[in-house]
Write a structure and sequence with these properties.
- This protein is mainly α and 471 residues long.
- It has one domain (2-460).
- The chain has 18 helices and no strands.
- Helix 13 (316-350) runs antiparallel to helix 14 (356-389) and helix 15 (393-418) packs antiparallel against helix 17.
Amino acid sequence: MGDRMLNKLIAKDKSFYKTVAMVAVPIAAQSLITVGVNMMDTIMVGRVGETALSAVSLANTFINIYHILCMGLSMGASVLVARYFGMKNQLDMKKSVAIMLRLTIAIAALFALFTLIAPETVMRIYTSEEPIIEKGVEYLKWSVVTYFLLGLSLTTTIVLRAVGKAKIPLITSIAAFFINIGANYAFIFGKLGMPEMGVAGAAVGTLIARLFEFAVICGYLFSKDEVIGFRIKDLFIRTRDLLKEYIRISIPVLISDGILALGNNSVAMVIGRIGGEFVAANAVTAVVQQLSSVLTQGFSQAGAIIIGKTLGESTREKAQEQGYAFLGVGFLLGLFSAAVIMGISGPIIRSYHLSENTAAIAAQLMEAISIIMLFQATNSIMTKGVLRGGGDTKVLMIADNLFLWVASLPLGILAGLVLHLPAFWIYFFLKIDQVLKAVWCVIRLRSGKWIKKIRTSREVSAEGEQERAKG
């Protein structure tokens, strides 16, 4: 039994790994650059002080709700785009992108409005410490326009990846990385003739970098790309015949990621109420966790793209074989990520100006994260990649959030706010959903029930005509 399972985890077609690497590595490289930008932000802001570091960290926790919603929208759309790409159906690719961009703009408007009129309310969600709230409000006010720029460039990037166009976003992100560092240096510390803005300077630097990303990535989609062939006029294309299928596949991803974002924010609320030192320590470790998981993110998105394309042009049996191979990749990446965290945790913690107690808390969190990553890498590749690429989005909507709300949050609150356990155990229980999901993913993969049919707009229209004829 064990040997048979081990054989399934190794792809029979060795070219599979080359194909996966060609898709995953550019995505991972871009994620690495994005994390690098976040790391430089926290290091630079950290030099202003722990209060500023905590404020930016908590403000970005709210912005990350929008970021996750955009990821949900675009990953749902990319499932459709990858499947239609395999079918060579350009019209339905355009319609999927049009619906995605419309929803992105609408959600950006809602977040921008709330951030503009109630920034203090946003900060009080996470902390009651007035100095942190004051700095966080200052950061949020400069971040309003960023929602539109971030959302449109992020969603466009993900659908471009679904059709094999990962290089343009990667090159753009490299340039944005250096633009962000330069702008941060100028505006945070008042260099190069610019005003010294502190926390607000970090937001201005991010805004400038996002503006550049939007101009290049969206400009490419709207004027140069020929695979999807999307142009600005296609924002107004008639999509009613595909809307039902988009809702069936993509909206569960949006809901799932949205509820997950709220759950993660609830985790941030728990952390925010443990104390300022814990918040600052978590801000440091969050960047390290992102840094160690960039390969996992790359392979997760590669899983969704490759499985979707396989099901669009090939058989269920081949997709099932690829699913097991991705499971094996996930396990190995978990081991690698854990080793990376333990290897870089010391130097990273020492690079910040932290108090002795905050540094000790950060070290405990690093140990907990290294263990969690063993499971998180596996379930991320399965839930965000293979199972999502197979169209199993409704079941994932439930599973993604069930373990978080039933296990992680209650146990985390008990450990942190009631029992006051050491930082290691608080974080471990706050993230125990990652362990539970990894076990569930293996069970779901083996069942084969994760492979769902996705219809074209023509098939949806034909079914509608048949129903009307019967009526």
